[in-house]
Fold this protein.
Amino acid sequence: MKYSFFPGCSMESTAEDFKMSTLAVAKALGVELVEIPDWTCCGSTPAHATDALLAASLPARNLAIAGEAGQDVVTCCAACYGRLAAANLAISEDAGLRAEVAKAIGKSYTGSVKVRHFLQVLLEDVGIADIKDSVVKNLGGLKIACYYGCLLTRPRELSILPDPENPQSMEELLAAAGAQPIEWPYKTECCGASFSITRTDTVKRLSGDILRMAKASGADCVAVACPLCQTNLDLRQSDIEASTGEKIGLPVLYFTQLLGKAMGLSDNELGIGKLMTDPSKVLAR
Amino acid sequence: MSNPATIEKIDSTLLNRLDPDGKLNLAACLQCARCSSGCTMRQETDILPHQMNRMVMLGLEERLLSSKAIWACASCHTCISRCPMKVDTPALVDALRAMATEAPADLKRVRIFNEIMLGSMKRFGRVYELGMMSIYKIRSRDLFSDVMKFPVMLMKGKMKLMPPSVKGRGAVASIFDKVRQSRRAR
């Protein structure tokens, strides 16, 4: 299994542990992720909030390069997934936009390169049976709140999940690794996303609600599939605790880190030391 | 929001400018408010999604462009996902943001942050977080929040000291220039 890999900017910085754990898990499962040569930013929220042509052209440059290799594009960042998939949809549906994008990026692109999230590759291409076979140290009934946030589930046309209001994909994957995913009501609520810097109080309120609900529902930790969600729930957790005076103490791990642990990969390979809320107690059980 | 019944004349030029091809489906809105009941920002906004759609129909351009709502939107897409008529409110918000020249005082930072992040993309091809944050802190005059996080983020490698070095940065700058030319022509 070979794919063109689009890491995205966060994977080179705040979410370096997501990239490390993704590559480690992929390698162990025989999934080859070849980085798109010379990839550039997808444009993220500021591009679509500013200009529809810019928002389509920045992803299109990368997708056009990836198209030359002929494989599906795989990304781990939920925001990059959303922007690349939205650009594909817009470009394939709108001939006028397609022509404008071709002018902006200097080559034609029809929106035909398939974009997928790594979670889909694991569930659809590798399959649960092979993932079960790869588990050497099962997660021992760890109670995990799987949190999806917005961009893997919405808008519906771009959702990677069959049921965007009550997704079960991470649950299925982590149950195969021996965890006991919990059912809880906030798995697709918004964490406040890119307002982390500009409207910190809003993010503290929204992310605080999510963390407290996960804890009240009996979770030992939270699993995420998005760098922004992880940053807001983990890096902001101490700020949330400070503003309410209530200790939460919930580790927030990428689903790839949890799966990697079950596959016997080392903490170093999985970037476990980069997490802010220490997961060692939870993972040692 | 004042009673729409007091509006003397309905002006559809705004609707035509925002959605010339009817792609956003705004006219299909049933005013059921399912969007607004699920809106992430419902507690912090001044115009709810279903009200925004109706205000476009009525041509209330100034009130929309000076609203908090267009900057307070988190782009979570809950509204369109639950809409029975597939009214594309997130795309409407983006189109209004692109038209607005100012943001209300307490939301200026959102606009500044967007500009700085785009500047980082244009210059480096990818986002250079430390550089972006430094410029943001100066321009927003929000100098001290989160500075205690920087050392630990640098130590954990969650923030890089040096900017990304990408060959494609010239190509990205050229995309920005061509998009600006095309916007001028539009």
